Amino acid sequence: MSTALAETRGIVKRYGPTTALADGRLTVLPGESHALVGRNGAGKSTLVRILTGLEAPDEGTVRFDGDPAPPLTDRDAWRRKVACVYQHPTVVPELTVAENLFINRQPLHRGFISWRRLKAEAAELLGTWDVRVDPDARTADLKVEDRQMVEIARALSFGARFIILDEPTAQLDNREIERLFTRMRALQDSGVTFLFISHHLQEVYEVCQTVTVLRDARWITTAPVADLPRQALVEAMAGEAIAEQAERHRTAEAAGPVLLDVRGLTSAAYEDIDLTVRRGEVVGLAGSSASGKIELAETFTGLHTPAHGTALLDGAPLPFGDVRKALEAGVGFVPRDRHQQGLVFGMSIGDNATLSVLDRLGRHGFVGTDRRRAVATALIERLDIHAEGPEQPVSDLSGGNAQKVVMARALASDPRLLVLVNPTAGVDVKSKESLLARVDSAREDGTAVLVVSDELDDLRRCDRVLVLFHGRVVAEHPAGWRDHELIASIEGVDHG
Amino acid sequence: MADTKAPPVKPVGATDTGSARTVLLRRARELALVPALLLLMVLGAIVNDSFLTERNLISILGASAALAMVVLAESLVLITGKFDLSLESVVGIAPAVGALLVLPAAQSGWGTELPAALALLAILVVGAAVGAFNGVLVVKFKLNAFIVTLAMLIVLRGLLVGATKGKTLFGMPDSFSSLATTTFLAVPLSVWLAALAFAVAGLVLKYHRVGRALYAIGGNADAARAAGIRVERVMLGVFVVAGVLAAVGGIMQTGYVGAISANQGQNMIFTVFAAAVIGGIALDGGKGTMFGALTGVLLLGVVQNLLTLAQVPSFWIQAIYGGIILVALMIARVTTGRAQD
Fold first, then answer.
1. What is the interface pTM, i.e. ipTM, of the complex?
2. Which residues form a coiled coil (chain A) (predicted)?
3. pTM to 2 decimals?
């Protein structure tokens, strides 16, 4: 066998009293796509930071092509070995694609930047790797997948042939993910090696040949994906057998009265939507990212205003375009992106969890500190948030726990209608289970739940799933649907 | 299966027109104020006969030169994503230190009676030193730029009042006012210097790596660092350069007025920010051009001049001036079509 392109052995990394990585082991062979999986806090990001030379390990060695890694200060040498494309963009949004590709190494003409050559070289670079992006475009205007390809092209232009993709699919819909994978495979054919980090196990099976599992800061196993069935992989990650996708058949309690009754709802994003949700019913909304499903869900929370149509909540008209009024009408809401809309990261768990119910915690706008503390503590317990207490800042929490805080806020107002948009995005397997368990308990106390998600596991819990395509409801699947049926209607291949 | 995949075909024409439009849009942002400026000129010409005379136009430029230097300084800091409020105090204290160094004790100087050339150099050094101090606090100690420079603004103002005991300094050598009094082609040297400074800054921002680094840092400091830009060093440099530019603005102001009062530059920072933001410099960094900033300065200069020519009672000038800044901001928002931030 050939020498490993990148190899880490016995890596130990401590931050103060916590050991972030106790036994970091990874061997990536040239030309493969290697998956790195593990729950939040398993040590994946620490290993990536060490592998990209952002931090030195306390113990252990890093080798590239059999040679020891360059010193940390020699950024250029690292950049020729390895590059990481993070979930958060490392491009400058206001600059053009061309400039981002050659930032701080723009081609010069007598000491001044030659914009003509910069553009030409950028076009050539993008062409070489078949990245179809206009070099003149403002980077902020790019789609996420294109932005990722620009970052990959930039890394390749430094001479790196080993690219780490840190949760590249987190913000993409199915179609975009498929395109990213196509491009990954093409790049792999031209000799690029990938380390692929994802929470979505089916993606690992789709694009990777080898998988390494980390758990509790330790290496657990490395195996060809073909030899590790899904169940075994989940067990390796969780350290215990999780009954995955408990396929419970709902006894469709269609008896509940209609809580949400929507008639002829139309806006720029969707058209003529009729929809009813009963008390204690969980309804899923599926569709590609341009299908209008998120806008439809946001309509009920006051974030998106429709042009026509009505929605009755428990017989009373639901006010549109006003989040405050929607809250008062009894709508609880987990927004699509916890970083952008979900949480105030500088504030504590308690502040965040009670943000939308402050008026209930005291009189005339004053907030009772003890009341708030009590409410927050109860929410932390109810949702099983792993935290020191309500005073801990949200920014300390892992993705899964932060998402539970968002869920706590949605539940704090005891909503009659609970709208969840991508409730388990970027969350590990175990937190996912506990977040989805909330959906079941909401069902039991008669709340109507609307779940919008790209994840089949989220939708599996629903009593029925409506599929939107170009802003129209095109299909309805009762519980018990098969994956390929739902995907077919999401992608629009089973109709027109 | 992978090696048989053909790349997806994409219409080329669509992206081309799209890019042409975005380029045009970006230009439009830069030129957003030009129509407003022209409109004001036409208005001025109608309202007052003496507005469009050569003498009046030159006086607008001469009166705006000092402001222009400080706006230039502030724009550089803003593009890098930071703040410097203390520039207005530099406009006062830097030339004052120079004056105190040359003036004899009898004219409330320090009695060192340094040669004028050395004193002028000292003015620039003071600007650089203040900038460096701000820079170290903000960049190395990671203090909030807004608060640090606000404190500096107050400290420097206090030092100026203390050093002059609140008195106005005058009787400086001619070289202190030569920037404002010497003319070339009928236009004061200070105007030429400000124009040159804007041209150089504009070129560097567009065509030099250091200039592009400012945008990169202001747009996404982490990305800039990852691209190998020495973020801390560049930021520190920007603070120093801004201090020096403000000190030059101070010299121009001194020459224009002919003396240094203890409140020289006071409240100037509000006008500076107004000019920069009207001119399209984003308060949260990474956006804006020197041309835009310059049009912001000229717009405010023309407005000020028009108000004076129209003999608006001096008690009302401030209210009207502030109102016009608000309107200008709204116009800039509408014409650029993007949120200001």
1. 0.73
2. none
3. 0.73
